[in-house]
Amino acid sequence: MADPKLKQMIEAGEFIAAPGVFDMISTLVADRMGFPALYVTGYGIAASHLGLPDAGIMTYTDMESRVRRIVEGAQTPVIADADTGYGGLLNVRHTVRGYEAAGVTAIQIEDQEYPKKCGHTPGRRVVPLEDMIAKIKVACDSRSSADFLIIARTDSRTALGLDEALRRGEAFEKAGADVIFIEAPETVEEMRIINDRIGKPTLANMVSGGRTPVLPSAELAQLGFAIGIHPALGFLAVGEALKHAYGALADSGDVSAVALEDFGDFSKLMGFEDVWAFDRKWAEV
């Protein structure tokens, strides 16, 4: 079931900073750090699970199975990327029901044409506005709990301009979406305009190297955003760390100077303490 705490925090005006998680290691690390929410990134799942780009290749089944495991392993409310809803209106209903049954607290659905692309890459095209409005209405009608939040995203800013993105955001708001996500604003002023125009809670996507300025949480909150997601933070950090560690091994064969997590602490994070306790209990049986 959806965790009511996320909706309560948003209604109370608390800013939600959500790191991107993409596998169980990133989930278990982030879950213990006291974040108000975790964000399951489609880009990260496509990269870690398939080794492929976030370009509409990953299916609903690919994503739902990994989202479900992440929710099972975390105590923190989970916001999950659902791309375009994985098809037409019937697919949207199936996706919403599946994500809610998996324990997701908020689902993100966007207005891109299929196959979709990462929101900070070129070549994105959007569906007609009325098609996305229908998806939002179906999504709202398909959930069983009002604590399960519908995040509606438009990718129209890059190709069609800010005015069209704002028009769509306002329409998404009227259609019943709980949170409005205007992807890829290009300046702080555009981010300010979004919050001046949109009446419902808004989401900012902080992608290092992307189109949108990456701002501290305090500044995002001051601009009026309710949620700030950092989908790429985890896998970009891991990628850089792996290059250093594997590079040391490849270059010199000596990894003694590589900064590493303590093996014992990592084993505890993975749940080995339970295994050790089980072994002690049943060792002589």
TrEMBL record:
Domain of life assignment: Bacteria
Keywords from the named record = Lyase
User: Would I find Methyltransferase among this entry's keywords?
Assistant: no
Q: Name one GO molecular function term.
A: lyase activity
Q: Which Pfam families match?
A: PEP_mutase
- Mind telling me which residue stretches traverse the membrane in this protein? none
How is this protein named in the record?
Isocitrate lyase/PEP mutase family protein
